[in-house]
Amino acid sequence: MDDERPAAVWVIAGAPGSGKSTVAELLLHRLDPVPALLDKDVLFPGFVVEVLAAHDRPFGEREGPFYDEHVKVHEYAGMTAAAAQIRSFGCPVLLVAPFTNQIRQPGRWQQWVAELGGEPVHLVWVRIDAELLHHRLVARGTDRDGGKLDDFGTFLGRMSPGTPPPAPHHEIDNTGSPAELADRVDALLSGGAPGSPAGRAGRAPGPPARRRPGRGP
Fold it and tell me: What's the pLDDT tens digit per position in 166-181?
């Protein structure tokens, strides 16, 4: 690599059902070079099912102390190690998962950035209101959301889907139409005019990503 710094990491975080995968797809169509995608829900579904079954836990238990201790810690450790290795060879990485503790616990963000291999790490936090989040979880109709919907109040308290995290981040509001969401992603990558998600929440370290020729509006 010509630059001594590793390739960039993009972290797409937010509550389950907030639209992280959609935001990730929009970014992947706009970033050049295209990052390697590491999506928790694609990488670990079989592992999660086996661990829950081995411990006689409900299939829909995807949040809470047991999940954090026996499942999530391994999911996130694997994603972190893979991202650090991939970017060390010059390939940018895009991570998709809630990453609640990493972005909300004081001091944890900088520790995680170091585990990822250091800056530049760009956090994109996806905002959604509670009513729309509940609607989307019901609409997607997957059994893995059962625990969230059974105790939605506790789930909201853990996720804080409308409260920005203390970690430096770009904010994407996903309460509008698909066209509005695409416009917000474009605004983020262009540097963020006053009032845009990037301008409102604070720029992540490093220059804005380059847009592919011929992409965007």
Answer: 999 999 999 889 999 9
